[in-house]
Each structure stands twice: as C-alpha cells, then as structure tokens.
Amino acid sequence: MKITSIPASCVVRCIYTAFCVMLVLSMPGCGGGGGGDSGGTTPVVPVVPAQSSEFVVLAWNDLGMHCLNPTYDTAVILPPYNTVHAQVVRRGNPPQIVTSGVTVQYALINNTYSYGKRSYGQFWDFMLQLFGVSLPINTGLNLVDPGINNSLSGNMVAKAGYFSADGIPVTPVNDSNVWNPYQVVQITVKDGSGATVAQTRATVPTSDEINCNRCHGANAFQDVLTKHDASHGTNLSGNKPVLCANCHGSPVLGTTGTGSAGIYLSQAIHGFHSTVNPAAACYDCHPGPTTQCSRSLAHTTADGNCIACHGNLATVAGSIASGQRVPWEAEPKCVSCHPGVAQVDTGTTLYRAATGHGNLSCEACHGSPHATVPTSQSSDNYQAIQYQARAKTIASCGVCHDGSRGEGSSEFASEHGGTSPRRTTACNVCHTAVSSTTANWPHAYQWNNR
Predict the structure, then answer these.
(1) Spatial CA neighbour of 411 closest among 423, 399, 419
(2) CB-based burial label for 257 (10 Å; 0-12, 13-18, 19+)
(3) Which tens digit of pLDDT belongs to each residue from 199-231?
(4) Tens digits of per-residue pLDDT, 38-80?
(5) Among 51, 378, 54, 366, which residue's Cα sits nearest to residue 191?
(6) Which among 182, 174, 180 is positioned nearest to 116, based on CA atoms?
(7) End-to-end CA gap in the chain
(8) Is 418 in contact with 433 (CB distance < 8 Å)?
(9) Residue 195's domain is classified under what CATH number?
C-alpha cells in the first residue's frame, strides 16, 4: 500500500514512532497549525482512531521507573515489584468507567519468566529469609492484596473505578536475553462472552542499575555491609542476605514508621551521602546513568529536574528528619509548578493515586510520574498514538493545534462543542459529544498554552 493521499508534511507530523504507521495510512489529513485571528492555518479535521470503538482502555505503570536489586544474596533494597493499573471506558455522552461485566488481562510481551535470568532467581532462593514468605518461582509479593501473587501474565483485579495487578515480578531482561528497562505489557479487555472489546499496551519500567559500584567498587553490596558494620557495630556481613528495610523504615515496602534503627532508609542513604559525597548526582543511583529516572520531554533537563522537585541530598534527608516528608508518601506535587489550574492541586493525595476529569486517574491521560506523555520512549506514547494519532496528553488540543490550548474557548465551542460538532477533537477518544461549557473540560481549560 502506498501513502499517496497524505502530504509528506502530514506524515512527518503524525508519525511519531514506527508503530503508528498503520494508523496514519487511513488518515485523510492531519492536525494543522493553530490558526485563528493571527492568520494561521485552519486545522484539518483529524482522524481519532478511538471513534471506531465502543470501549477504550487506558493503562499505566504506577511509577515512571521501578528499581530492583541485581542480586539478592548480600544487601537488598528492593525486590522485583511492578504495578499496572487500567481503566476501561465505554465511549458515550457521557462516557462511563466500567469495572463490571468485563475481564481485564495483562501479559508482558516476550517476557514470560524471571527465575533463571541473570541472578534474579536469588529473590526466590532467599525470599523466606528476606521477606518472611515463600512463593512459587515467577510469582511476586503483593503488598496490596497479599493473597494474590501475580506472575508475568494474568487477570487484573477490579477495584473502585479501575483494575490493578500489583507486585508483578518483572525484570529488565526479556526472553531473548536482551536487557531493556522499558518492558511492555499488553492489556486486553474481554466482555462476558470472551470477545476482545479493547486492547492496548503500556510501559512497565524496571531497572537493576542500583548497584552502588561507582563508589563502593566491584563488590558494592558487600562493601556497604562491611562499612556499616565498622561504623555502627553491626554484624550484617555475618547474616547475609540483609534486607535494609528490616531495620530502616521503607514505606515503599509497606513498613510503618522509622523502623528499629529509628531512621527511615531514605533519610539514612541521602543524609549519609550528602556528607561523604555531596557532589553525587541523582542519576548515579536513580536508578543509574543508563536508564535515568525521568524521561518526560516536558520535564527532563540534564538532571531530570530531580532537584527542582525533590531537592538535593541534604534537603531530602533534612525534610524527612524534620517530619516534613515521609518517604514515598509525601512527595512533590504538580501544583507547585502548575498553580491556579483546576484539579491540579490534589491535596494530600499523590499524583499517582489521584483522579480528575470524569474520575479518570491523572496517569490515564498524562502518563506515569517521571514519564508524562510525550516521553523519549516510544512505548510510553503508544496509547496516545493508538487513540488520537499523536503523542500528546489524551484529549490535548495540541493533537490538532500548534498550541495545547487551541484557538480559545469561543472557538472550541463553535467548532467542536455540542452534539453535532463541525470538527472532531481528541476529546472524542472517550466522548461521542463534547460540552460547549468550558468548566466541563479537563482542568476547566485553565492550563498554560505550550
């Protein structure tokens, strides 16, 4: 098939990554410039592929990057543990979030087992000593639903407004023995008859670069234990493997309080290194120089904006010590940089757990923390391209216009609002008709144009 009906400029604009080619083949045109009073080009009616579906499914990983230990026979910080959420939307006027009458399945693509790859099998070999439980290989811990131990494929559990698979033991090595921290999961929605009604893909990121060898040498974890024993009179080296959270509180592993050591693990690590190596960069550890934690194109600077949001090593440790911050439970908020916009201030609820427009998760439209769309990884942009043919936030005016705010509220109402709109918009990913009232739009149309 030749792309003969699409101008080359449109192909460049709409093909963000190779996997969206088939979506673009059917496009009569693509989103033009912002247009309007300035004499710009009037946008061409875009194709919104989601319009051909009764259901759409939006899926995301709860964090932009999970970390796991490369080995589990010495010092252990984090297990293989990944969480995927999904929301199923029945398109309509208004759309409806569906949690009954459908089954949602997940499956890592070309990644069906973890035990036997590199040294990850040590997690199961030493699981009882480290975590106090014994599970079949290739099944993971579950801090949310302890009785459900997920593998690399299975059914997601229906929650209040979404589906979830917690504690998937994903490793960054696929079945072809290729190391890739950006693993991909396929989400499939089936109705009561077993027919597939929606399907998508999402990134399941996980990196094992957190190995401390830049400062601690080739046998880094042993060096950490040796130095800890010398400084604190412990005998960790004689009781390997050691889970750091056994003594230092680590809420990410479900512990409460500072632990028997009287100091959170995050405070201990950041505070100690702020004095012995204040020049250490965030990407030395989070999770490492190759993967790096933040990959959102709008938020990534040379250091990933880490310090701008979280503070430096001393600030992180000091804010925990003073009680201003509980690690993993009190993190920076979007409103700090995006004030005055409806639904951005989520109060004490973190972005990763917050909901907004139509009770959709913030991540359903924007993407995971540290990986808000568009990102440098094509797999993060898959859903945006699948549903609206452009790697932008779901329902962004930027799908068609040069700016994310389009022409303005009056232009939107006259061109796109009502039950018989003149022009299709990215809102039609979920809505079959769009309200002409600005207050009903995502964030009440108060975001900054960019």
Answers:
(1) 423
(2) exposed
(3) 999 999 999 998 888 889 999 999 999 999 999
(4) 334 444 445 799 999 999 999 999 998 999 999 999 999 999 9
(5) 54
(6) 174
(7) 36
(8) yes
(9) 2.60.40.10
> If pLDDT is split at 50, 70 and 90, which confidence band does 143 have?
very high
Report which listed range, 283-292, 307-316, 378-387, is most confident.
Answer: 378-387
Residue 183 and residue 123 share a domain: yes
Q: Cα dihedral sign for 138, 141, 142, 148?
A: positive
Up-side HSE of residue 163: CA atoms within 13 Å toward CB? 24
Full DSSP string of 49-65: GGGG-SEEEEEEESSS-
Asked if the peptide bond before residue 287 counts as cis, ω within 30 degrees of 0, the response is yes
Q: Say how far apart CA 372 and CA 298 lie, in whole Å.
A: 8
Q: Taking CA 287 as the corner, what is the angle to CA 286 and CA 292, rounded to the nearest 5 degrees?
A: 85
What's the rounded Cα separation, in Å, for the pair 171 and 37? 53
Domain end position, chosen among 312, 329, 346: 329
397 neighbors 36 (Cβ within 8 angstroms)? no
Distance CA 80, CA 308 (A): 28
Both 416 and 380 in a single domain? Answer: yes
What is the average pLDDT value for the chain, to the nearest integer? 88
DSSP 66-109: EE--S-SSSEES--S-EEEEEEEEE-BSS-EEE-SS-EEEEEET
- Hey, what amino acid is at 2? K
Q: Is the dihedral angle over the CA atoms 422, 423, 427, 431 positive or is it negative?
A: positive
Instruction: Specify the DSSP element, H or E, that contains 199.
Output: strand 196-207
- For residue 6, CA distances in Å to 21, 27, 87, 402 come to 12, 7, 33, 19
- Do 65 and 189 sit in the same domain of this protein? yes
pLDDT value of position 118: 98
- Domain final residue pick, 307, 329, 351: 329
Res 46: pLDDT: 55
Residue 5 pLDDT greater than 60, yes or no: no
Cα 343 to the chain's mean position, in Å?
A: 19
Q: Interior CA angle at 57 toward 56 and 63, to 5°? A: 150
In the beta sheet, which residues pair with residue 242?
Answer: 75
- pLDDT, position 4: 34
Calculated CA dihedral for residues 343, 349, 351, 356, nearest 10 degrees: -30
Per the listing, tokens 């030395």 go with 284
- The share of the chain scoring above pLDDT 70, in percent, equals 90
* Residue 359 domain flag: no
